[in-house]
Amino acid sequence: MKRYLLPLFTLLVFAGLNGHVYAQQSAADYFENGISKSKSGDFPGALQAFSMAITMNPENSASYYNRGLAKANLKDHRGAILDYDRAIELNPKDALAYLSRGVSKSKQEDHRAALMDFSRAIELSPDDPQAYFNRGASRSRLEQYRGALQDFSRTIELEPTNANALYARGITKQKLEDYASSLADFSKVIDLNPKRAPAFAGRGVSKVELNDFNGAIADLNKAIELSAQDAESYYFRGFAKSKMGDYKGAFGDYERAITLDANNYQAYYGRGFTRSKLGDQKGAIQDFNSAIELNNENVESGKVLYSGRINRNILDNLRNAVQERNKINYLTTERSEAYFSRAVSKNKQGDAKAAILDLNKTIELNPTYAEAHFTRGMIKSAQGDQKGAIMDFTSAVKLNPRYGEAYYVRGIIKHSLGDENGGCLDLSKAGEVGYTGAYKVISEYCN
After folding, report:
1. 141, 135, 4, 8: which is closest to 72 by C-alpha?
2. All domains of the chain, ordered by start, with CATH?
3. Measured between alpha carbons, how far is 254 from 261 in angstroms, rounded to an integer?
4. 249-266 pLDDT, tens per residue?
């Protein structure tokens, strides 16, 4: 099997065509075009090319796999997973497909399913360090720290200079309270990359836990020098200074930590402690109150109409950016086109109610008029009738399965109503059928 290597993430490899290359020359041309566009970073173009290859040769697993990679690069991980599913169905022995699907599942916070994919990838390719690293990351997210430690260690056996694995193993050892052993991992990372701030911060935290406060402050000084916006480094340096009795210095660090992260209840507690030591009991009490309130914050679970991250204002802005589909057509005997165009004009004049009446008549006369369903859905959404709008967009895509704008607007409405998965799948479909504007929304709201 021919393989195409591309620098996608640090682990994804573009698969090649199978034995259908010569039998399906036109499909092969689209496939090669997709590979070329992927190499140049034109992932929307690559996606369309692979889609054409799939249309002409729907049994080629590599086309689905590579389209999945293109979607993943566009941060459309839900859509990518669907393509990886099909690639695996066609080629169950492709370790890369399991590995890539696991990555996209991880991006969707589905770590248990991702872990299963990484395990299958390891079964098929037992010497791939990336598969062990990714499985270790999933195990860590699931708080399976001993299993994660084994995976990171295996990664390092296969790739001794893998700084990411060394750092991850150091953090995992901290989770297991093996602070002394973590020092060597962080030190090795620093040897490999002397400007990696998190490694200095991690080693500083371990030194705090080992009561080496001078050493901790030295490491945290370096971490802050390299990354001045890291609230945690200020907090732990403040803690180390507090332990050494430097309350004024600690106060400044806690203050900075709170400025960078107003929800750091531990920093409020630390600042309150230093204020008390410095004689400011009133300020100390206020900080202790904040620490208690932030740590026990209860979120009310009332029913909200627009419960997704896309609120009503964002929905309106995203929807209104979609251009209408009103092109001149031959006027048929039932005159549905005239009703449709009159509806568009009435809506532009601000008479949405009259516009909907004309669109109702349009659809009554011509039930297969996809643009009429779409336009009525747009007006209903603008009027706040989101459920009615979804019904119209659903009709539009049934009549025209490649109606990208309809998938797009239905997707942002679903998302705004709290159906993030359904909304993002619609956005993925919109991008797949050519409405590339969907990928900006996917990038911002589906990850």
Report:
1. 8
2. 3-160 (1.25.40.10), 312-445 (1.25.40.10)
3. 10
4. 999 999 999 999 999 999
